[in-house]
Design goal:
With 991 residues, the chain is an alpha/beta fold. Helix content is 46%, strand content 12%. The chain folds into 6 domains: 7-91 and 188-303, 3-Layer(aba) Sandwich (Rossmann fold); 99-179, no CATH class; 338-360 and 367-372 and 584-704, Rossmann fold; 399-573; 714-745 and 825-957, Lambda Exonuclease, Chain A (Alpha-Beta Complex); 755-823, no CATH class.
Length: 991
């Protein structure tokens, strides 16, 4: 039996359910004989299409059925291997094997490193290698001559960046065949071309006994086009297109392109690659066929939409120069019956509304629904909302391995090593849910929490040595000594796990050795939980491929590039759950949704940059270079996304959604959304009911705002001993004092925090105390002590570099001032001295930085400040009482060994901050004559006594409530704002 005279080409329009219509026709033609059906073969674009067609056969069969052979031929990117069912066995001239993808990427990364004029780390090299591989694949898929690059004369017209990239690309393109020859392999795209050519040639001589149907293909690859041409001409062959627009008139069809070359310049204008029909038109051209050769597939199904939908979709997707036709459309030609649009404010509202629409479908017996979106964040949110009602959606796109526990553990290990066990990276690793999985985890977490408390504040030195120094026994607060003692008991176990990992990397400069060390120690840290389950198996398989190929991979494997390398490689692997979700609800990506149709299709995330997404840039070839040598433009992906959108619009019920705001700010509506809205005009239907339900679902029945907290603890628990440093807090914000002193809630410093004022103040006071106690008064001695403090092993080098120079300048000023005072007859009586006195019914305590005996016999109180001291206005208003309270204690003989004076006659702040061009200055909140609106020196302690007496009488010996933010205008650290729920009541008039 010879070939047909006309190719057997058919089309299932967008308004029909493709899989059901295809299966209905196949059964009508071949279903009368079960064995005849089983001998047939259906070629489909991808595995998801196979699943959809299989489900359609199950629905249509009504019983047992021997299915035809279903083969995934490839997707638009030709990224899937040709089905094994088509692999010709026993050939005299076997096709060489394809190089493994991971091995190929590693070799290309090494070649990029070696050929680049500038150093390229391993992570960046792998990204460039992936892009390079994609270009190589496109060149082979399009069957372009490599010599076309050498013949180009555009290099002088390109920027220097593109000239460099083109030159490097040419070098790599020349070297790559040599690498393949060395390995005895060929590229996967080349192997597929040869395989498809061989299949087409074999079928030309001996067509298969059973029927062969190629369905739903949209890729324009010449090898695919040739095979489809061969199938269409076979006696029992047929090609069935999906969503070919047969409603579009000739003028509109010709306006899509591609166009003929200009006779003068020889260049052809670019076609509208972003049009949904561009790829199918180009495929027909390469099959030597036209749209007139395509017949309508006669069969449909009960899941089809009305036929008018297809005509209206065609109108909405007119080429740009013909959209003026929308003005003249009749109502019937612009109607989108069954299509509703939902526009909400935020992605969160969009996800909630979609989840409600999906649940509504579940509540309808037999109704199916699917969310189709390229936005994985939106899909994840919708899945989470559905779990609220116990609905587990079948998310066929899966999740990238880099976001799953095994992947995050591997990335956390890489980051911890790259940052030399810096606090944040270290704690992220140690707290990972897979670390010490099992019975030991509870004790492990207790030890990690202890280490967490010690890592609050400035970063220790790098590596295991820095952690050893952090935990070493030394002087300090009692609480810190207890924490270090407890942590040391646990650290022995943790150190035994982490030190071999660090040593392995110090001795492992190569990528292969680094991967082996990560694999071995990841198993130890997690008790092999990282490799367990379907997620762990995916990680193990990927790691095995990486280790096997790493020996041929990048040579410069800087440990700092390891996290980016892992994130890139692990992010490229999607892991799907082994079991499906709800049988009637699915969440699909664009590739998975092809040829799939449900009763309700929700097309979500219709914002520009999401659907369609921004084309990924090609770092190797400039757009003009790609066009000159015949590669598809980067915008061709937009055309495929447009075809996916138009095909999905064919379902009986459609809900399209978008949020006016994205994660990064205001969002622009997708061009597809705007086209539909402009074409539909008054027929545009809104689905605001879902937005209303989304807003109402979490709406409280009644509004009960929080009131300003004002706890009234009994007198028995109110402190009777108060440090001078807490008096200001008590007066300005009694609730903060209550939380700190009565509830005993202390703010924790951030992990790996910069050295704040408290740390700097403690360090300065410690240096000055030791220098004063030594009694030398020598500037060199003071500087030596300061430098010794910064040379301590627990002080981070960055802190030393940033803060030591300004501290040295400031202490030189202090030494000069002290020498000047001593020469004037002033005498230092005590430094860093603790004092206490019974005042106003409570015990007032405080530490004076320095107490001097002035020449007139009165006491001078000095308070060192590393920053700007309180203003005289603050002191006079009673919100900076510390200096005056210390003078009050001195007058009550509260400081031992200072010899009581009738009054304290001097009050000074010595600030180490910068003023003018130098560091260090004195400031006094008092003046003997009350000049500049300062307090008179002789009246200072009596005024402070009066103010403190009022404070003590109200909150310490009285029953006043500890109100929150009594004086919000006073500077406050805000440590307890969340506890007092400040944002819920502050600024509201309670009447």
């Amino acid at each position: 039996m010879g070939d047909r005279t006309r190719p057997a080409l058919f089309n299932i329009p967008a308004h029909r359910a493709f899989s059901d219509a295809l299966v209905t026709g196949v059964l009508a033609q071949h279903g009368d004989d079960p064995m005849r059906l089983a001998q047939g073969m259906i070629l489909l674009p991808n595995n998801r299409a196979i699943r959809s067609v299989s489900d359609a056969f199950v629905r249509k069969s009504g019983g047992g059925l021997l299915l035809p052979r279903l083969v995934a031929l490839g997707d638009p990117d030709l990224g899937e291997q040709v089905g094994g069912a088509l692999d010709p066995l026993g050939e005299d001239d076997p096709i060489p094997p394809a190089i493994a993808p991971m091995r190929r990427q590693m070799i290309l990364a090494r070649m990029v490193q070696q050929a680049s004029a500038h150093p390229v780390d391993a992570g960046q090299a792998l990204k460039l290698a992936q892009a390079l591989g994609a270009v190589l694949d496109q060149i082979q898929v399009e069957r372009l001559s490599v010599a076309a690059l050498a013949d180009l004369t555009l290099s002088d017209e390109l920027s220097r960046h593109w000239q460099t990239s083109l030159k490097l690309f040419g070098i790599l393109l020349a070297q790559w065949p040599q690498e393949l020859a060395r390995l005895g392999c060929i590229d996967l795209a080349d192997r597929r071309n040869r395989l498809l050519d061989r299949i087409a040639a074999r079928w030309a001589k001996a067509p298969p006994e059973g029927f062969v149907i190629a369905a739903g293909m949209s890729t324009t690859a010449p090898a695919i086009a040739g095979l489809l041409r061969r199938i269409a001409l076979m006696p029992r062959g047929a090609v069935v297109f999906a969503g070919l627009d047969q409603e579009m008139d000739r003028d509109a069809w010709d306006a899509i392109g591609p166009f003929d070359a200009d006779p003068l310049t020889g260049r052809a204008p670019a076609g509208h690659e972003t049009h949904p029909q561009y790829a199918l038109k180009r495929l027909l051209d390469r099959m030597s066929a036209t749209r007139d050769d395509v017949a309508l597939w006669r069969w449909g199904s009960e899941h089809d939409a009305r036929a008018v939908r297809g005509r209206n979709i065609s109108n909405a997707m007119l080429p740009p120069r013909l959209t003026s036709r929308w003005r003249d459309l009749k109502t019937a030609d612009r109607s989108l019956a069954g299509v509703e649009a939902l526009e909400v404010a935020t992605p969160g509202e969009e996800a909630q509304a979609i989840a409600i629409a999906l649940r509504e479908a579940v509540e309808t017996p037999g109704r199916t629904a699917a969310l189709v979106t390229p936005d994985r964040q939106l899909a994840t949110r919708v899945s989470a909302h559905l779990r609220r009602w116990g609905i587990e959606a079948d998310d066929s796109a899966g999740l990238p391995l880099s976001r799953l526990p095994p992947g995050t553990l591997l990335i956390a290990m890489a980051e911890a090593l790259a940052e030399r066990f810096a606090p944040v990276a270290l704690l992220t690793l140690l707290k990972h849910p897979l670390v010490m999985r099992g019975e030991e985890r509870l004790g492990w977490l207790e030890g990690v929490r202890g280490l967490d408390l010690l890592l609050r504040g400035p970063r220790p030195q790098a590596g295991i040595v820095g952690l050893d120094l952090l935990l070493a026994e030394r002087d300090g607060e009692d609480r810190q000594r207890v924490l270090r003692a407890r942590a040391r008991l646990w650290w022995a176990e943790a150190r035994a796990l982490l030190e071999p990992l660090e040593q392995a990397f110090l001795a492992a400069p190569g990528l292969a050795a680094q991967l082996a060390a990560i694999r071995e120690h990841a198993g130890r840290l997690s008790h092999d939980a990282v490799w367990a389950g379907h997620q762990g198996h995916a990680a193990a398989d990927l790691f095995a491929e990486m280790e096997e190929a790493a020996s041929e991979g990048p040579r410069q494997a800087d440990i700092r590039a390891l996290p980016a390398l892992f994130d890139h490689l692990l992010g490229g692997v999607s892991v799907r759950p082994p079991q499906g979700g709800h049988p009637r609800i699915a969440i699909l990506g664009l590739i998975e949704a092809r040829l799939v149709q449900t009763d309700l299709m929700i097309l979500g995330g219709l914002n520009e940059g999401t659907w369609p997404g921004l084309p990924a840039p090609d770092p190797w070839l400039a757009p003009r270079i790609r066009r000159e040598i015949g590669l598809p433009g980067l915008e061709s992906r937009i055309g495929l996304a447009a075809h996916d959108f138009a095909s999905a619009l064919g379902a009986p019920q459609i809900l399209i959604t978008r949020a006016r705001r994205g994660s990064g700010g205001p969002a622009v509506a997708s061009r597809f959304w705007l086209r539909l809205k402009a074409m539909a005009g008054p027929q545009w239907k809104s689905a605001d009911r879902y937005a209303a339900l989304a807003q109402a679902i979490d709406h409280a029945a009644e509004h009960r705002p929080a009131s300003r907290p004002a706890p009234v603890p009994p007198l028995s628990v109110r402190p009777k001993v108060i440090p001078v440093t807490d008096v200001d807090r008590l007066k300005a914000d009694p609730y903060a004092f209550y939380a700190k002193r009565i509830l005993r809630l202390a703010r924790l410093d951030p992990v790996d925090a910069d050295a704040g004022p408290a740390w700097r103040g403690t360090a300065v006071h410690e240096i000055l105390q030791q220098w004063a106690e030594a009694g030398s008064g020598d500037l060199a001695d003071l500087e030596a002590r300061a430098r010794a403090m910064f040379d301590r092993p627990d002080v981070h080098p960055l802190l030393k570099a940033l803060w030591q120079p300004r501290l040295i300048e400031a202490i030189r000023w202090i030494a000069a001032e002290v020498a000047s005072d001593l020469a004037a007859g002033r005498k230092i009586l005590a430094v860093e001295i603790e004092g206490r006195a019974e005042i106003a019914g409570v015990t007032l305590t405080g530490k004076a930085d320095r107490i001097d005996l002035l020449p007139d016999g009165k006491l001078g109180i000095v308070d060192y400040k590393t920053g700007k001291p309180p203003s005289a206005r603050q002191v006079k208003a009673g919100y900076a009482l510390q200096l005056g309270l210390l003078g009050l204690i001195a007058e009550h003989d509260g400081f031992p060994g200072t010899h009581p004076a009738p009054v304290a006659g001097g009050f000074e702040y010595w600030s180490l901050a910068k003023k003018g061009d130098s560091f260090g200055y004195r400031e006094s909140p008092v003046d003997p004559l009350g000049k500049r609106d300062k307090i008179v020196t002789a009246d200072f302690t009596s005024q402070v006594y009066s103010q403190f007496e009022d404070v003590a009488a109200a909150w310490l010996t009285g029953q006043a409530p500890f109100d929150a933010q009594v004086n919000p205008e006073v500077a406050n650290y805000g440590d307890y704002d969340q506890l007092m729920r400040l944002e819920e009541w502050y600024g509201r008039d309670d009447g």
